[in-house]
Design brief:
By secondary structure, the chain is mainly beta. The chain folds into 2 domains: 110 residues, Lipocalin (Beta Barrel), CATH 2.40.128; 93 residues, Immunoglobulin-like. It contains 1 helix and 16 strands. The strands form 3 sheets. It has an 8-stranded antiparallel β-barrel with strand order 1-2-3-4-5-14-15-16. Strands 8, 9, 10, 11 and 12 form a 5-stranded antiparallel β-sheet that branches. A 3-stranded mixed β-sheet has the order 6-13-7, with no helix packed on it. Strand 2 and strand 3 form a beta hairpin.
């Protein structure tokens, strides 16, 4: 699940320092009175290339952070006890990132067939795509920072494009290309609340050393800081 991918957002910088800051931000928030055996501070225990933490506070709030490869995640909100588990709900509910069609841009003097950028125009590599035509097989590949251009011997005109950003799972409905597009597309990733996890009752169960948080993407193990 937590593999590194080659498409960091523009605010992504030094990984070790960023991981330390994530954990420090969690620990810096004091926990209230111990009203539940789950209340406490936890550190992620998923290997040397993954860092993060979970803070379950006695006032019914939680904070969560994770750094894995190019992926940064965070969340805060409410928790409630459900039997032998504690379940997390992100509050406020995050606005997911979106892919939007934008004006074509030149890169090194030419407009590429496909270019995916941030709103500031910076190209995004590693976005998977499928380009379809009036006939024949579609083309599948992934973008570079300078976009992607059809080979010179490809005479077909693109009619639609599907995009899949692999780190944060950003997708969009198929982009249909009109005559005015000239077979080219620039798509922009609008970040919104990118990286904020929408926990909707994701539950964690107590373990001997901490808790295990169950998610659709996979389980995350946390160790309680300071012991029992």
């Amino acid at each position: 699940m937590w593999k590194g991918l080659a498409c960091p957002p523009p605010w992504s910088h030094d990984r070790p320092m960023r991981t330390l800051l994530l954990i420090a931000a969690l620990i810096a928030t004091p926990a209230a009175a111990q009203q539940s055996p789950f209340v406490g501070e936890y550190s992620l225990a998923e290997g040397p290339d993954v860092g993060g933490g979970l803070l379950i506070r006695g006032d019914g709030r939680f904070k969560y952070m994770l750094a894995a490869g190019a992926l940064d995640e965070r969340a805060e909100g409410r928790w409630d006890a459900r039997g032998d588990t504690v379940c997390l709900t992100t509050d406020p509910k995050p606005v997911p990132p979106a892919l939007e069609k934008g004006e074509l841009l030149e890169v090194e003097g030419e407009v590429p067939t496909l270019l995916v950028t941030w709103p500031n125009g910076r190209g995004i590599p590693g976005v998977d795509f499928t380009i379809g035509f009036d006939n024949g097989d579609p083309v599948e590949d992934y973008t570079q920072v300078y976009g992607w251009t059809l080979p010179d011997d490809e005479k077909r005109i693109p009619r639609w494009v599907e995009l899949r950003e692999p780190i944060y799972g950003i997708t969009a409905p198929r982009f249909i290309l009109t005559e005015a597009d000239g077979g080219k597309l620039r798509a922009t990733i609008v970040p919104n609340d990118i990286g904020v996890v929408d926990f909707d009752g994701a539950c964690a169960e107590k373990t001997e050393r901490g808790v295990t948080l169950h998610r659709a993407e996979g389980d995350l193990r946390f160790v309680r800081l300071g012991g029992e």
